[in-house]
Amino acid sequence: MKTFRLLPLTLAIGTALALPAHAQSLQELYEAARGYDAAYQSAKSQYDANLARADQATAGLLPSVNLSAGATTNRIDYQEPAGTPSRSFDNQNATLSATQPLYRSANYATYEQGRKQVELAQAQLQAAEQDLIVRVSQAYFDVLAAQDTLTFVQAQKTAVAEQLASAKRNFEVGTATITDTREAQARYDLVIAQEIAADNDLRVKKLALNQLVGKTDTAPYPLASGAALPPLLPEDVNAWIQQALDQHPSIRQARLGLEVAELETDKAKAGHKPTLDLTASYGWNRNINGNALVASTSTYNVASVGVQFNMPLFAGFATQNRVKETVSLEEKARSDLDNAQRTVSQATRSAYFGVVSGLGQVKALEAAEASSQSALDANKLGYQVGVRINIDVLNSQSQLYQTKRDLAKARYDVLVGGLKLRQANGSLKTDDLQTVNALLVPPTAPAGGTPAPAMAPTTTAPASPVAPAQPR
User: Fold this and answer.
1) What pTM, to 2 d.p., does this model score?
2) Positive or negative, the Cα torsion across 320, 325, 328, 334?
3) What is the pLDDT of residues 85-134, one digit of tens each?
4) In this structure, what DSSP letter does residue 465 have?
5) The Cα angle at residue 70 between residues 67 and 73, in degrees rounded to 5
6) Which of 15, 44, 258, 325 is deepest in the core (most CB within 10 A)?
7) What DSSP designation does 270 have?
8) C-alpha angle with apex 359: 354 to 361, nearest 5 degrees?
9) Which residue from 429, 420, 407, 434 is spatially nearest to 355, judged by alpha carbons?
């Protein structure tokens, strides 16, 4: 009984000794991952490349200017009339020319595509940021869950060791059979194996988090004791789905892809349309020692301004077939948009009910924890007075610590599930980490019950029916 009374203190001391000197919050580790994670850096580089590619589309509407220059040396050897002396002459020239498109339907469609590419790049980068938030959060809470598992297994080992010692003492004085000792020994050996597995799992989870954030000594802040989990607001799955249809990056990418495909059809149809350009040039030419006909040096300049009209008449049916191709690709893009909307709706629905189920599971496990503790206390008392046997106490201990592990993991799953829900409906932002980060405390800080902000999606459009997360 004394061991059980000292157990909370033992756990607190063990946890404090196990923590490194400097722990990190979820926000800190996410910022570290932004500057280190290869997948996110790749997405960011792709974003920059897409912006540069989009700017290239503007070139079709701007003038093009060219400068050319040349110099030649010539020699004439006369065969007839006889006696005419041979001579050499040089030519130097330079030309500056410019062309300004006045009407080119294909170039304007390309320009519009470039503007869509900018929006597409932003949606792709947003998706990468959301993915990084979820990956860091998942790895963060995986470490916390592994730490809790190891801590609870070690606490169970201490309790089973005390029960084993008690069984041995009772056997020595003749108040218990050898069966109690053997049962306690078997349970102790099993807990030792569980401790080894839990310790290895913690090492693996820490390595995964270290690799993600680029550190070698990650130590996540633990969840505050008694922290209230954020409620799910609004309590209407349709509101979450509607917001997903309005702003999810995947749907935005598919919608922009359809608009780009429609512009590609316009470009193909432009193959039947004329083009009109404004042209201008200025040339300088100098003949030294004349030319083939005249022997005197001459210099002259030529300037010209005009318009150039071009009307395509027949291209071997290439334009017609190109139009057919782009129309088919346009239909494909429309189908891709439908598929993206259905996929996002299903993912949002699943994530929503996953969080609802998780919150219910947490409440049930909290009740189960209290019941398991009462059952353990009753079995220990019954064992002392002889109405319960040793295996009853051991089973009660296992049930209690298993419930504690399940409860801790369920709480972490709800927090990560809330972030995944926002990712599923496209509203996840870096600021959402602050809601979760507020529930974490440094290892040296006093842990107290912390009210949590509501688990609501972040709204980017005023017309959305879903309200942003607000502190409760």
Assistant:
1) 0.82
2) negative
3) 777 888 899 999 999 999 999 999 999 999 999 999 999 999 999 999 99
4) S
5) 175
6) 258
7) G
8) 90
9) 420
Cα–Cα distance, 16 to 39 (Å, whole number): 34
User: Closest Cα to residue 208, out of 155, 145, 156?
Assistant: 145
Measured distance CA(210)–CA(143) in Å, rounded: 10
Supply 390's token pair: 């040793």
Q: Phi and psi dihedrals of 94, rounded to 5?
A: -150, 140
What contacts 246, CB < 8 A, 6 or more positions away?
461, 463, 464
Distance CA 200, CA 196 (A): 6
Q: Hey, what are 376's tokens?
A: 């353990």
CA atoms within 13 A on the CB side of 125: 17
Residue with tokens 């390595």: 207
- The answer to whether the CB of 301 falls within 8 A of the CB of 121 is no
Instruction: Round the CA-based radius of gyration of the chain to a whole number and report it.
Output: 38
Residue 155 contacts residue 449 (beta carbons within 8 Å): no
Q: Which residue reads 């959402």 in tokens?
A: 432
Measured CA to CA, the distance from residue 458 to residue 148 in angstroms comes to 31
* Residue 124 and residue 257 in contact, taking contact as beta carbons nearer than 8 Å: no
CB-based burial, 252-277: b 16+ in 10 Å, e otherwise: bbbbbbbbbbbbbbbbbbbeeeebeb
Convert the pLDDT of each residue in 198-233 to its tens digit. Answer: 999 999 999 999 999 999 989 999 999 888 999 998
